[in-house]
Amino acid sequence: MLSEIEQVQQREALGRSKGGFSTKIHLRCDGNGLPITFLLTVGERHETVVFEQLMEQGAVKRTTGGRPRIRPHRIVGDKGYSSGAIRRYLRRRGIRLTIPRKDNEKHRGKFDKSIYRARNVVERCFNRLKQFRRIATRYEKKAENYLAMLTLASIHLWL
Fold this sequence. Notes:
Blueprint: H1 4-11, E1 15-17, E2 20-29, E3 35-42, H2 51-56, E4 74-76, H3 84-92, E5 96-98, H4 113-116, H5 120-130, H6 133-137, H7 143-158
Parallel strand pairs: 4-5
Antiparallel strand pairs: 1-2, 2-3
């Protein structure tokens, strides 16, 4: 059972990490480096915990018309997303993946380094979001206000 302070920290997405007391932003962006959707968790939360939730939100408008597209053609992620559960989730949905395996995992299949280089698009998106001082330093005490500032920064990037 979590104490009252821990419950507030969970609700407001504040927690300890290597860099101190912080919030972790989980981001999904398109191939052009524009943010599609994001989630906030406490600083020490692992990426795999919110992966499915992140993948289920954020639709992209089709250029040809019709319903917005939710599933991407391919996911490119770092070793933090290397788990059997994530790989099964993506395979069930017909999404290709380029995620390097951890050193302690069995190495099966080919790993395409040229496709993996596209992961820097996400890092550049984080960099552009962190150019907004309110995002980089988290002035807002409430998680919903911080999410609002992330949304405004994302809209600015799309314009």
